[in-house]
Every structure is written in structure tokens, then in C-alpha cells.
Amino acid sequence: MTALDPRTRRLLEAPIVPTLLRLAAPNVVVMVAQASVGLIETFFVGKLGTDALAGMALVFPIVMLMQMTSAGAMGGGIASSIARALGARRRDDADALVLHAIAIAVGFGVLFMAAMLLGGRWLFTLMGGDGASLEAALVYSHVAFSGAVLVWLFNSLAAVVRGTGNMAVPANVTVVGVVLLIPLSPLLIFGWGPVPGLGIAGGAVALLLYYLGGTLALWAYLRSGRSLLRPSWAGVRFRWPLFRDILRIGLVAAVSTVATNLSIGIATALTGHFGPGAIAGYGTASRLEYLLVPLVFGLGAPLVAMVGTCIGAGQRERALRATWAGAAIAFVLSGAIGLAAALFPRPWLLLFGHDPAMLEAGAQYLRAVGPFYGFFGVGLVLYFASQGAGRLLWPVIGNLARLLVAGFGGWLALRWGGDLLHVFAVQGAALVVYGVVIASAIAGGAWFGRVGWPRTTRGLMRRIQPS
């Protein structure tokens, strides 16, 4: 039997909370840096005017859908498959899974590219875009999605590395990329010297260059002697069981991701009834929710590796203890950010523009929804833990429940004569439903029953001590 790598042994034996925090620290850095990519773009595009900012708001949910599907949904399936293979000491399968992950990334990248190049105008019009804001959205979308394969490859290779328990390499690659992007984005948007300004398209070009460089760096690491995995194209033979092991988690997780972004897309469309300023305000304010996604992902990615490795090794109880530790940390982190945004919304909004209608709509959103961000954090981190466990039914149900409340409730608010604040209040209620549904299901034994769990309070307290 293959000996355990020290990194895998830590996931199985080291104290849970310190290990999660140690692994999450570089991962939070990488996710904050990656989220900064979108914020950097929004900051500079905001200098082009409200129409450009509204155009970005229309495209952003779809860009994040691709990001979350590639990094969170399918990326989680990739990381979970590799972690479980390593936990069960199937090293050859873990190596082969890398190439299967690349094939999946290319396929989905082409699918996103074709869908947005052919259907972008219809989609953005449906979301409330028109006039100059619609044209700005199309310009940005056509450039960004022409390189969708690069986004998928970058996030898939990062997931491969994280599946081994190594969070530092993706962090380093991303941080270096963001440092280079900070001057590159305004250079291509506004131009300087011999470099012509490309306007809103320049932000998309800079983004694709960032993903290209990151993809090459991650592949170079995987081919180096420092990598735990040894992928090779020599004599490669694709096997359906390995594709299935990734896809059975990734595709189900994608349903949850689509529901999350559809909730925001519907909210954007509902907000569109109040004009471009309202769309710009909602789009700018809701970027804070999208910022929570990579922050919680920073904790969720090591949780996928730990839960997957523990389950691969048959340690179900430890997997559950790690899950609840992660949920508690996520609630505190995201809840604190949400409360701060609700109390002080304008400093965040003023980073991106000064239009009065944008500021008013954005402030209303943050005051109505920010206090409930803690529930969003809990639901999201339990979604990642469920990926590690290979049990995604309840995260999908929780996200569909959120979609139902956000969409139908927002429609009712407008039909009954409600204003923008009522639409936003429904979005806050939807976040509560999302977190409570998933947490209740897992607490009730949705993964594998109450296997190994004590029935007395004293026994429970003894079992959840760090181990």
C-alpha cells in the first residue's frame, strides 16, 4: 500500500481548527487577491461613467457564474476527487485525475464561450439592459468570454493543487498575478504613450492576460519535482470512472452555483425596473456578496480537502467535526463584514462612483441584506464541505429554496406595489433560508446518518474537542 504523504497525514491527524486556519490563511489571501481582480476592474471602469458601470453590473453575474462554476463547483469536484484518492492511497488515480480535469475544463470553457457570444445580447436585454449600458455590456462580454477556456484551466489547475492540501502555490500565483494586473488594467482601459486606450474592453483583455499567466505558472508547478502529483500526457488513456468521479460532484454543485447566480441575476432584473442608476447601485453593492464568496472559499477549499481525505480514510466523525468548525468560523467572518457594510455602506460604494442614484440604491441594498450575510457564509461553507463528502443534495435544495424566495418574493413585492427596499428585503430573507436549510439537513444526518455521534450532551462536548 502507498505510504501517506506528510501533507495527507496532517489532514487526517492534526488538530482540526488550527489545521483549518493554517490552511485557510494562504487560501484567504489568494481568494481576496482573486476577488480584487474584479474590484480593480470595477474601480477603473467606473471612471468611464455610469453607463459603463451599469454594463459591468449586467455582465458581472455571468462572469461570476463562470468563476464559481469553474473554481467552486467543478473545482470542488476536482479537489474532492483528488483528496479522496490520496486519502485512500490511490496515487495513480490521483495523477490521472489531473488530465481528466483539464479535459473537463476545456469542454466547459468552449461551452461558456459559445453561449455568451451567441446569446449575450438576449440575456443582457432580459436582465434590463438597454441603450449605452447594454452596448457596454456586450463589448466587455465578447472579449471576456472569448477567453473562457483560460478561466476554466486556471481554476481547474488551482483546484488540483488544493486537492493535495497545498494552498500556498495557488495563493502565490494569484497574488503575483494581481500585482501585475493593477497597472495593466488601467493601462489597457485608458492607454498611455504608444499603448492605445481600449475602454471597457481593456479591462477584459487585462483579465485574460492574468488567467493566461496563471495557467502557465500552475502547469509548470505540476510538472516540477515539488508537486505531489505527477501528471503526464505520455500514453494517457481517459477513463469514464475518473470523469464520473469529478462530474458527479461538479455537475450537481453547478446546479447550486447556477441557482446562486440566478438569484442575483433575477434581483438585477427586478432592480432594473427602477432605472440604470439602481442597476449600477445594486451591482456595485452586491459585489460585496461576491467578495464573500472567495473569502469563504478560502476556508472552504481546505475543508474540501480535509473532509474528502477523512472520508476517503473512513474517518466520518472527524469529517463532521471539521465541517461544524468551518461553519462557525464562516458565520463570524461573513456576519461581521455584513454588519459593517450595513452600518457604513457609503465608503464601499464611493470606491466605484459618485452618482446619487447609484449611491442611494446601493446603500438600501447593504442596509437590508448585509445583516444576513452570516447565513450566506454558513450555507456556502457547508456547500464546500458537502463537496468533500460527495453529498450535495441539500446544498442544492438550499440554493433552490433561496432562488424561490428571492425570485418569487421579489416579483410579489413589485406586483403589490413595493419599492426597491422591499425587493432587497426579500433578498435578505432568501439568505436566511439558504443557510438554515443546509445546516438543518446536515445536523439531521443528511450525509451518512448519525454515524459515530454520541447521544448525550457530555459525550458530544467530549467529541468536539480539538483532535
UniProtKB/TrEMBL annotation:
Keywords of the record: Cell membrane, Membrane, Transmembrane, Transmembrane helix, Transport
Cellular localisation: Cell inner membrane
Residues spanning the signal sequence: none
TM ranges: 20-40, 52-75, 96-119, 139-161, 173-192, 198-222, 246-270, 290-312, 324-344, 364-385, 392-414, 420-453
Membrane topology: Multi-pass membrane protein
Primary residence: membrane
Record protein name field: MATE family efflux transporter
Species of the source: Variovorax ginsengisoli
